[in-house]
Amino acid sequence: MSECKVQGQVHVIEESKTFGQKGFRKRLVVLEQDKGRYTNYLPIDFTHDGCDAADELSVGDEIEVPIRLSGRKWQRDENSEVKFFLSAEATEFKILRKGGKSDDRAPPRAKSNASAEDYEDAPF
Asked: Which of 38, 46, 84, 93 lies 20 to 30 angstroms, CA to CA, from 76?
């Protein structure tokens, strides 16, 4: 695993999702970085107690997030294509500025109708 920090404006905050029999919890927060010509969107995963900590965030907040990068290899069976996935998991966050610019395109909370069964074959 590799650790680094990213900074950006909160663009989307999803509801927490629970997976598996052990109750693994995950919550996605997407940061927006305006890099001039292109806008960068960074999906950051909050897990376990971090799901509750993300309740302090609002769309438009400017935050700094230390993240752990981790990668996974996934293959459905030995005859199928191998895929590689990269994820960024938040270890904590610091609010640099509340509110920031308003963005009418982003909902305050993105709700998901997905259930744990929908992710049964997911590689994460």
From this structure: 46
- Strand 62-74 with 2-13, pairing: antiparallel
Separation between Cα atoms, residue 110 and residue 93, nearest integer Å: 20
Q: CB–CB of 6/31 below 8 Å?
A: yes
Contact assessment for residue 13 and residue 26, using Cβ atoms and an 8 Å cutoff: no
Q: How far apart are CA 47 and CA 52, in angstroms?
A: 9
Cβ neighbours for 104, distance < 8 A, ≥ 6 positions apart:
none
Least confident piece of the model among 20-29, 66-75, 77-86, 112-121 = 112-121
What's the rounded Cα separation, in Å, for the pair 64 and 122? Answer: 29
Distance (Å, whole) CA 106 – CA 99:
13
Strand positions, DSSP E, the chain: 2-13, 17-19, 24-34, 39-47, 62-74, 83-90, 94-97
The pLDDT score that the predictor gives to residue 1 is 59
Q: Which amino acid is at 32?
A: E
Confidence at residue 122, expressed as pLDDT on a 0 to 100 scale:
53
Q: Which amino acid is located at 117 in the chain?
A: E
